[in-house]
Amino acid sequence: MIRKIIIALIACSAFASLATQYPITIAIHGGAGTIDKNKMTAAMQVKYKSKLKEAVDKGYAVMEKGGTSQQAVIAAIQVLEDSPLFNAGRGAVYTFEGEHELDASIMYGKTLNAGAVAGVKQVKSPIALAEQVMENSVHVLLSGQGAEEFAKRQGIELVENSYFDTKKRYESLLKAKKKIAEKLAKSKSIKAAYQQLDVKYKYGTVGAVALDQYGDLTAGTSTGGMTAKRFGRIGDSPIIGAGTYANNDSCAVSATGHGEYFIRYHVAADICARMQYQGISLQDAADTVINKVLVKAGGSGGIIAVDRQGNIAMPFNSSGMYRASRKQGESAVVKIFKE
Amino acid sequence: MIRKIIIALIACSAFASLATQYPITIAIHGGAGTIDKNKMTAAMQVKYKSKLKEAVDKGYAVMEKGGTSQQAVIAAIQVLEDSPLFNAGRGAVYTFEGEHELDASIMYGKTLNAGAVAGVKQVKSPIALAEQVMENSVHVLLSGQGAEEFAKRQGIELVENSYFDTKKRYESLLKAKKKIAEKLAKSKSIKAAYQQLDVKYKYGTVGAVALDQYGDLTAGTSTGGMTAKRFGRIGDSPIIGAGTYANNDSCAVSATGHGEYFIRYHVAADICARMQYQGISLQDAADTVINKVLVKAGGSGGIIAVDRQGNIAMPFNSSGMYRASRKQGESAVVKIFKE
């Protein structure tokens, strides 16, 4: 009799474990924009793809070992932050004044807790600081020197601002400033001078979204912002609802693109809202916002998203988006252009 | 024959004018929170109500003379910013360091254009600067010194930070710091020290929403933030989607309350999204978010909202919310407590 009960209990717990097991899933992006297929050498493509694969595999491995989607998102983003290839962390673009000001945010879909930082200059991993804000402060969004003072208290690694210097980004700044100066010589409108800048100066972000075996979603985004940005400009990346959103009732989204449009159309939260309130699929919600609403408004970029069933959506309305994804039991899929 | 055509044309244009005429409507708030009915003297209530009436009437008058909802929202908010009674502009609370850092945002529902500023110290009317960001910059959100540099270029009125000093708010800072220090003496957790602070230290905002005769919605919000705030904390007021949202397809919303919850639940945009995607009324959407979603999460505060039919919703889950509204052909209604 006791043996039968034990067998029943084991069977029952195995069933319960199966029933609550979600398919671990991760998707990442390294920015969207005018990635010119003809100008990008095969060697460069290999370089980008290899780093994207490393990041998505690292995040996946965290969850495979029982880690949470939050840990996976942090791990994947830090690989991209540490690489000079992407506009986040190490490869951050320059502000108009020749410095680097970084933004990041993270949101946990189980609790709707969130943390974000804007305009930090000395934090090696802005996504790690955003996580600290989420876990250990009563606030959601900290900015500037204040955010760095908080970073010091939390023992977050600080670096000199010059740590983020790269030759490639500096050349981009010089080109952007030249274009702005030329335009300003003809018209006094700073607005017009910035509007004519190619979207390649306005883009570049990294992000990750993940679903862990416990059924919890997380989204995170990190960026150096817009080349030659001025006036303490804050883009969509540290704005919960715009660049990042996660809710276990719908999905987790990380965005990349022309930030001002992503704020005005609160893109990340809107995709979640459409899914939840209209009862449509993740793919349909994401496609509608990126390829209809944003295209009509003139806002370019893309998003990565995952839902609780492990569905992935990665629409973008620009020529390319650095991206990778991995589903349970499968190997990583890495892409740059439309295919 | 010509006479008949002229009569037909006049009739037709009168009909078109009638058909496109929307009922001008405005609602404002001066903050929500623990407004203690027993501690508030009749004289104080008269003082608050009189200023709220002045603000709502001023905004209404702008639209009655043919002005837009955008002009009405600015006019109404500036009356509240100029009054020391409310935590915005003149009556802004103090930061932990004993300064004032102001935030504001505005959004125009016809174009979904938006502008916002965070952490400005010398701008007399933050809502006026937010409007300049919307109209004359390529960005949506500017912060700190950069935002002030932009203000100078746009000819926005600057004042010394001491312009915002008031005895009442300074006493609140001293009380809040004492409570924080007492808690920190027992535990090192800054998070816990701030969590125990009464909500009265976390509240106070002003805002306005309006519908003009052209059928266009605008929402705006302005605040001094949270008493004793630190680390460059940014609340929900300058966050498009959280503290402010406007879309002619749904509604215009301005929020006031514990900002961190309003960011995580992207309250303003969520009310618009529920209305648009679920096809429910403004009142139902607003009630659900404020009295169900936020109450369940533990987030207190309220919102004011108006839709394109001139419906007004003003739910709050705190003990009171300073508020006023006025509909076409009616006089102003001003309230503080639940009635």
Largest sheet of chain A: 8 strands, mixed
Largest interface: A-B, 49 and 49 residues
CATH topology term of chain A: Glutamine Phosphoribosylpyrophosphate, subunit 1, domain 1
**End-to-end distance of chain A:** 60 Å
The counted number of beta strands of chain A is 13
Assembly annotation: homodimer
The CATH homology group name of chain A = (Glycosyl)asparaginase
Estimated radius of gyration of chain A: 20 Å
Count the domains of chain A.
Answer: 1
CATH class of chain A: Alpha Beta
Mean pLDDT of chain A: 92
* Helix segment tally of chain A: 10
What layout of secondary structure does this protein have?
The structure is a homodimer of 339-residue chains.
Chain A: H1 2-20, E1 25-33, H2 42-64, H3 69-81, E2 102-108, E3 113-120, H4 126-136, E4 141-143, H5 144-153, H6 167-186, H7 190-195, E5 206-211, E6 217-223, E7 233-234, E8 244-246, E9 251-257, H8 259-264, H9 267-278, H10 282-297, E10 301-307, E11 312-313, E12 320-327, E13 333-337
Parallel strand pairs in A: 3-4
Antiparallel strand pairs in A: 1-5, 1-12, 2-3, 2-6, 5-6, 8-9, 9-10, 10-11, 12-13
Characterise the protein shown here:
- 2 copies of one chain form a homodimer.
- Mean pLDDT of chain A is 92; it is low at 14-18.
- Chain A contains 10 helices and 13 strands.
- Chain A has a single domain, classed as Glutamine Phosphoribosylpyrophosphate, subunit 1, domain 1, CATH 3.60.20.30.
- The radius of gyration of chain A is 20 Å and the shape is globular.
- Chain A has 339 residues and is of the alpha+beta class.
- An 8-stranded mixed beta sheet of chain A has the order 4-3-2-6-5-1-12-13. In chain A, strands 8-9-10-11 form a 4-stranded antiparallel beta sheet.
- Chains A and B meet through strand 3, strand 4, helix 5, helix 7 and strand 7 of A and strand 3, strand 4, helix 5, helix 7 and strand 7 of B.
- Strand 4 of chain A pairs antiparallel with strand 7 of chain B, so a sheet runs across the interface.
